[in-house]
Design a protein that fits this description.
Elements lengths: L5 E7 L8 E7 L2 E7 L12 H4 L1 H5 L9 E4 L2 E4 L2 H19 L4 E5 L7 H14 L4 E2 L2 H4 L2 H10 L6 E3 L6 E5 L3 H4 L9 H11 L1 E5 L12 E3 L6 H14 L8 E2 L1 H8 L4 H8 L3 H14 L3 E4 L1 H4 L4 H14 L9 E3 L22 E2 L8 E2 L9 H6 L5 E5 L3 H4 L3 H9 L3 E6 L4 H5 L2 E4 L8 E2 L10 E5 L12 H11 L11 H7 L8 H7 L1 E3 L7 H10 L2 E2 L3 H9 L7 E5 L18 E3 L1 H7 L6 E5 L4 E8 L7 E5 L28 E2 L1 E4 L1
Parallel strand pairs: 6-7, 6-17, 9-10, 9-13, 10-11, 12-23, 17-18, 18-19, 24-28, 25-27
Antiparallel strand pairs: 1-2, 2-3, 4-5, 4-19, 8-14, 15-16, 20-21, 21-22, 24-29, 25-28, 26-27, 26-30
Bound molecules: ligand MGD (2 copies), iron/sulfur cluster and molybdenum atom.
The site of molybdenum atom (MO) has 2 residues, from loops.
Length: 662
């Protein structure tokens, strides 16, 4: 890392998985600006307001600079040595008395883009050997992974639209113009959708006429949680056309009987849409032949998540759109390279494991416990310590009012963070780790990148205050528990180099060039081989048939989630996005609520007060509340008990609400 003077350094943004290339302007040790890097082959100079806010994040006046430890009732600054020794001793005692399962680990979003930190966290987790692992998986979406496993035999299949060649893209419950994609990064979403809509069909299915829907050729606004009915209708009609997907499939007859009730009239009634819109969508699917579908949190957070994802895959398979130009392509990974080995094939019923002891009705999913079970596990005395790595627990997890007193009972709540928040205020140990401009890094989630690619960045500036690298902190904790996790005398670059797993390029080459990319093969031979070994796509997994039959609908107003442009979850709150509650003028009039007036939103589980924004782009029966605001905290309205029975995903969309003037 060069230091001193004025310089512009090439890097890539790790605020979100779009990983845009950036140029960072530095004067002495002050980061003064971030611009898009036009030479970056993946983002071509694009940045969004969040990436451009990196200097503000780095120089935030409240930033955490020194380790803190609770002394009596108060958090007080201390040295790393004292903080880690105390933490290590407490964890050792807890493990000695109650076993490793009493120590939980949360892999929060804040460490999701710290490659060395994340991998060291995985190593620490393995070394401690605790089953109590939490991550955003069960508060963001499990449906995509579950359906990939049940229908495609592997959770590792991450499909995404082939935007370059698609003739019809259907986006369901995702608003990439704001979010830049769900589980898939997308720099310059406006550009992508403008190009697409100029030459092809883009249908957006969302109860709100979103920023993305405004660029679409058509917008369909079904009642939340009923998207599956629209898809079931399409599947039914495509089957009646005599679908010939040209690939092997299993259980076609079971799928046909599952979708048989979804006639045009039935689907239109359930979804509360005009039947002629369904005719138009069906005609568009027939005309396009191969189609592409992408789903987002509007799908994965609803009670019908798995069933909706199932029918979207069924439609893709039946139209021959999987692994096909203009349809879906599957990311082979850059580091892992799925084409190099045979993916293990999961059994058709999925892999079910027991959930935590205090919640025997729940299951572990992908070896993780549902986030919603954390308060009960603490109250039961099963979890006594929590290593919270970059998680804003009190805004991200459900049922804030239940979680808060539970967290306060923990013997240890150790949080790695860059900025203080409600969760650090409750913590027993606060561990300030390096922010993204202070550490070298490589792309961690290359499966989420829009290309088969990886990038490297050096550190831009030296760490502020006493901040240390996450990997170093975790390795030091491990050492105090008797585990040799990493050599803590290594530099960050040396540590990153030890992870050099990808055979596509060497770490040294990545350092030299800044990025590396592999050709995309479409259709991909590895996918063909995989589907052959699977014995054909599984069209009708029993678990999903059972869930379809169990779906129930309410007709009253419901809560839906929403992202905001100038923040990421709980982060960047200082860019000023307000927690506006969007509702249709009709619903507002019925409840006696005026624009910009305070309202109370109430569910069976709790209530919150916020500012109403009357918005004709929202369909009636829908209340859109942005998440992760500490004040107007939407998780006051959610439940620790309203979970997907198969995966433990919390229900964040479609929760029945009532509206009242404040
Ligand atoms: N009701 C409701 N609840 C939701 C959602 C919803 O839509 N509705 N959305 C859900 C979703 S999709 C998700 S992903 C979760 C997100 O919930 P979390 O996983 O808790 O993620 P964030 O709110 O982004 O908080 C990340 C924290 O990491 C810190 N951080 C940032 N960079 C770094 C770093 O480099 N190192 C360290 N150590 N820390 C860092 C930030 O300051 C921030 O406090 O919330 C979920 N909760
Ligand atoms: N600017 C910004 N970008 C972000 C984030 C952020 O907070 N801010 N968060 C990041 C994270 S952690 C994630 S997980 C991704 C999420 O990325 P997305 O899934 O694209 O999230 P949203 O932009 O909230 O879009 C979800 C849409 O679903 C709609 N919806 C709600 N319920 C239903 C339903 O039942 N059916 C249908 N069809 N639609 C429904 C909502 O109205 C909303 O427009 O975004 C990431 N990117
Ligand atoms: S889209 Fe994501 S990666 Fe790109 S600048 Fe914005 S926050 Fe950074
Ligand atoms: Mo997320």
């Amino acid at each position: 890392m060069a230091t001193g003077g004025s310089r512009t350094v090439r890097s890539f943004c790790r605020v979100c998985p779009s990983v845009c290339g950036i140029l960072v302007e530095i004067e002495d040790e002050r980061v003064v600006a971030v611009h898009g890097d036009r030479d970056n082959p993946f983002s071509g100079g694009y940045t969004c307001p969040k990436g451009r806010a990196l200097p503000l994040i780095h120089h935030h006046p409240d930033r955490l600079e020194r380790p803190m430890m609770r002394d009596g009732g108060r958090l007080a600054e201390t040295s790393w040595e004292a903080c880690l020794d105390d933490l290590g001793a407490r964890l050792r005692d807890i493990i000695a008395e109650h076993g490793p399962a009493a120590v939980a680990i949360n892999f929060g979003t804040g460490i999701g883009m710290d490659a060395a930190g994340y991998r060291t966290a995985e190593a620490l987790h393995r070394a401690i050997g605790t089953p109590a692992k939490f991550s955003p998986l069960t508060i963001d979406g499990t449906a995509k992974v579950l359906v990939a496993e049940l229908m495609g035999g592997s959770a590792g299949l991450t499909g995404r639209p082939d935007y370059e060649n698609a003739e019809l893209v259907i986006l369901i419950g995702s608003n990439p113009v704001v979010s830049h994609g769900h589980t898939i990064g997308m720099p310059n979403p406006r550009g992508v959708f403008r190009d697409l809509a100029a030459r092809a069909q883009l249908w957006v299915v969302d109860p709100r006429r979103t920023e993305t829907a405004r660029l679409a050729t058509r917008h369909l606004a079904p009642r939340p949680g009923t998207d599956y009915a629209v898809l079931a209708f399409l599947v039914r009609e495509i089957l009646r056309d005599g679908a010939d997907p040209d690939v092997a499939v299993q259980d076609l007859d079971l799928l046909a009987s599952a979708v048989e009730p979804f006639t045009r009239e039935h689907a239109a009634e359930l979804a509360d849409v005009d039947p002629t819109d369904l005719d138009d969508l069906l005609a568009a699917v027939r005309r396009a032949g191969h189609i592409a579908i992408d789903t987002g949190t509007g799908v994965t957070m609803s009670a019908s998540a798995n069933v909706t994802q199932w029918f979207s895959w069924a439609l893709l398979i039946l139209t021959g759109s999987m692994n096909t130009p203009g349809g879906e392509w599957f990311h082979p990974g850059f580091g892992y390279q799925l084409e190099m080995f045979e993916l293990p094939i999961a059994p058709p019923e999925g892999k079910s494991r027991p959930g935590p002891r205090s919640r025997p009705e729940t299951k572990a999913f992908m070896r993780e416990w549902p986030c919603a079970t954390l308060p009960d596990e603490i109250e039961a005395g099963n979890i006594r310590a929590l290593l919270n790595l970059g998680g804003s627990l009190l805004t991200g997890f459900p049922a804030t009012d239940t979680l808060r007193p539970a967290l306060a009972k923990l013997e240890v709540l150790a949080t790695t963070e860059i900025l203080p928040n409600e969760t650090t205020a409750l913590s027993t140990h606060v561990l300030p780790t390096t922010g993204q401009l202070e550490r070298p890094d490589v792309t961690l989630w290359d499966f989420m990148s829009p290309r088969i690619s990886a990038q490297h960045t050096p550190a831009m500036v030296a760490p502020i205050g006493d901040r240390r690298s996450m990997w170093w902190v975790l390795a030091e904790i491990g050492a105090r528990l008797g585990h040799d996790i990493a050599d803590t005398t290594l530099t960050d670059e040396q540590m990153l180099a030890t992870f050099n797993g990808g055979g596509r390029t060497s770490y040294d080459d990545m350092v030299a060039t800044g990025w590396a990319q592999a050709e995309r093969e479409l259709p991909a031979a590895w996918m063909h081989r995989h589907v052959e070994r699977l014995g054909g796509w599984r069209l009708a997994p029993q678990l999903l048939i059972d869930q379809l039959h169990g779906l129930r609908h309410t007709t009253g107003p419901v809560l839906v989630p929403r992202r905001q442009l100038r923040r990421v979850n709980a982060q960047l709150e200082y860019l000023g996005e307000q927690p506006e509650i969007l509702l249709s003028p009709q619903d507002a009039a019925a409840a006696g609520i005026a624009d910009n007036q305070k309202l109370v939103v109430r569910t069976e589980y709790g209530e919150l007060t916020g500012i109403a924004k009357l918005d004709p782009s929202v369909r009636s029966g829908v209340v859109s509340v942005p998440h992760a605001h500490a004040g107007t905290n939407v998780n006051l309205l959610t439940s620790k008990d309203d979970l997907d029975p198969a995966t433990g995903m919390t229900r964040y969309s479609g929760v029945p609400v009532s509206l009242h003037p404040a």
